[in-house]
Design brief:
This protein is α+β, with helices and mostly antiparallel strands and 176 residues long. It has helices at residues 3-14, 20-36, 38-45, 51-58, 68-79, 86-101, 116-130, 161-175, and strands at 103-110, 133-140, 145-150, 155-160.
């Protein structure tokens, strides 16, 4: 986690009269553009391009669509040569907003399709366990079992067919 981006996120969180969700949405859109285009990322990290030119190329065309406080933050970041931190800032701000609202997202991985009713049951059980609102997304993987992870809460549960089989065999051996 970038400590400088964390300071910018903290400054945003301390502002009054700002719609943090709108600002996050705006920063996330800019971050997506940066992450999806390696040339833009290279451009932002280049010491050969002046900071004001970076701002003019990336932020100025959309400036009138952004929250004024977000624009001021982005201008400051541009002056300090830190526009490349926008993806980190968006990520940190997202996590801080989730923490404040006690809402978290997680991933359910399996090599099979997972029924939405099972995901809802998992969400309810994890919410009861953690005291937080949890939204899970299904993700296909080559895992021979199921894995549930809510990274921001430090929760990780996994069951593989092989580990269950090994535990069952071990239990049978002990019984004999």
């Amino acid at each position: 986690m970038n400590l400088i981006a964390k300071k910018y996120a903290k400054a945003l969180l301390e502002l009054k009269d700002i719609d943090l969700n709108k600002t996050l949405s705006e920063l996330s859109a800019i971050a997506k553009v940066i992450n999806d285009n390696s040339e833009i990322e290279t451009f932002l990290n280049s010491p050969l391009v002046k900071s004001d030119k970076k701002y003019e190329a990336l932020i100025a065309p959309i400036e009138d669509k952004l929250d004024s406080k977000a624009v001021n933050l982005l201008k400051l970041m541009a002056q300090k040569g830190r526009l490349a931190l926008i993806p980190d800032l968006a990520n940190i701000l997202s996590k801080e907003i989730m923490l404040k609202s006690n809402e978290f997202t997680g991933i359910v991985e399996s090599n099979e399709d997972i029924d939405s009713s099972l995901i809802e049951k998992l969400e309810k059980k994890l919410a009861a366990y953690s005291g937080s609102s949890i939204k899970l997304e299904s993700k296909k993987s080559d895992l021979d079992g199921i894995k549930v992870e809510v990274e921001d809460l430090g929760l990780e549960l996994s069951f593989s067919k092989q580990s269950v089989k090994n535990a069952l065999l071990e239990h049978i051996q002990k019984a004999l």
